[in-house]
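[Discussion] Sanity-checking designs against the backbone

I'm trying to build intuition for which residues belong where. Below is a structure token string of 67 positions. I'd appreciate it if someone posts a full sequence so I can compare it with mine line by line.
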């Protein structure tokens, strides 16, 4: 059971790390905008600071899950 919990925690950590990269660094790219349902590039630019902040929240979740 400990192994299954460890694998699940690592998978959650990796998932949150991917979301961190998308929100913090790749937010305005077309593929990322599509993944998050943002059609307008101006909307992505206007929400860039919010996404950057949310990305770091996901990074902290990843660190905690892996620890």
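Best answer:
Here's mine. Compare freely.
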């Amino acid at each position: 059971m400990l192994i299954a919990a460890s694998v699940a925690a690592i998978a959650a950590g990796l998932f949150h790390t991917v979301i961190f990269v998308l929100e913090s660094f790749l937010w305005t790219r077309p593929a990322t905008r599509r993944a998050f349902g943002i059609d307008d590039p101006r909307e992505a630019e206007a929400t860039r600071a919010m996404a950057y902040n949310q990305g770091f929240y996901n990074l902290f979740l990843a660190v905690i899950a892996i620890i």
